[in-house]
Amino acid sequence: MLTNKGKYGLKALVDLAGLEPGQTAFVTDIATRNNIPKKFLDTILLELRNNGFLRSKKGPNGGYALSKPADEIMIGQVIRALDGPLAPIRCASRTAFEACDDCRDPASCQIRISMTQVRDAMAAVLDTMSLTQFVASEQPGQDQVAGE
Asked: Residue 99 needs a FRET pair 20 to 30 A away by CA distance; which of 16, 30, 35, 74 works?
C-alpha cells in the first residue's frame, strides 16, 4: 500500500512537473496547492532531492525543481525511494527479501509465490510509467476508483 509519504511525494512531483523550464517552486506553495502538511513535505522533498529526483536553490528566486526531465523519472523508482520495496510482504521483495519466521520453505510457500506475482505486476506498471505519463493519466475530479 502506498503511504502518505509516497502519495505526497508523487503529488509534489506532479506539481513540479507542471512548472516551466527553469522555474522553481517554494515548499510552502507546493504544500498549499496540494493540501500537504509543510513540515512533512520538507522532509519528503529533501529525500527526493537526496535520491536525485529534485534540485533545490536557496534565496528569493529559489525553491525546488525536477533535476531531470519528467519522462526520465519512473514512478516505481520514486515509490521505492520514499516507501521502500513494492512487494506487499517482505518475503516477496526482490531488493529486501526477508523470510517469514513461520515459513518452513519460502520456495514452495503459496502466499509468497502469489505475493511475488502481485509485486511483479505492480513493478511492470510502475517501472515503465514515467512522471510524464503519470501526469497525463490524471483525470480531474477522480480521486477514487469505484469499488475502493
From this structure: 74
The answer for 130, left when phi > 0, alpha when psi is -120 to 50, beta otherwise, is beta
CA distance 73 to 53: 7
List pLDDT tens digits, range 110-139: 989 999 999 999 999 999 999 999 999 865
Q: Is 44 helix (H, G, I), strand (E, B) or coil?
A: helix
Q: What whole-number distance in Å separates Cα of residue 81 and Cα of residue 13?
A: 13
142 against 12, higher pLDDT: 12
pLDDT in tens, 85-109: 998 888 888 888 888 888 888 888 8
* Residue-wise burial string across 118-143, b where 16 or more C-beta atoms lie within 10 A, e elsewhere: ebeeebeebeeebbeebeeeeeeeee
Quote the pTM value. 0.85
